[in-house]
Amino acid sequence: MRAGRPVALGSMAIRVMLVTPADAKSPASTHDVPPGFHAARYATWTPTGGEPERIAGLEPVIGTGLGNEAAHVQECLHAGRLESPLVPHAQTLTLIRQMDEVRRQIGVSYASDREG
Asked: What domains lie within the chain, and their CATH numbers?
């Protein structure tokens, strides 16, 4: 309990073997992430015609999935925040809308899209 309020903590483990690296290319640059991109320790950015630059995070990666995100949620809850200052609700909703538009454009839909 924190300040008279219960705090729920949960844990979950999912093991996924991702052997393919991820990359994103544009006319201006290429971004490469090694296998296990969902918990990458670094990425490589290469501007078109330039030298590659290795980019690493400032914090260590926790676990092999969403460990850092889960730790941040726990920090927010313990601080009494209902919203992350790093990823506000509006940003999350914008991302969801963008992903819905991508799904619409490529023709992907789920049964839940047709309900209600």
From this structure: 22-114 (3.30.360.10)
Instruction: Indicate the pTM of the whole model.
Output: 0.55
Residues with Cβ within 8 Å of 55's Cβ and at least 6 positions away in sequence, in order, are 42, 43, 44, 45
- Would you give per-residue pLDDT tens digits along the chain (116 residues)? 445 554 444 444 444 455 677 888 888 999 998 887 778 889 999 999 999 999 998 888 888 778 888 999 999 999 999 999 999 999 999 999 999 999 999 999 988 888 76
Residue 103: partners with Cβ closer than 8 Å, 6 or more residues away: 109
Q: What element of type H or E holds 104?
A: helix 89-106
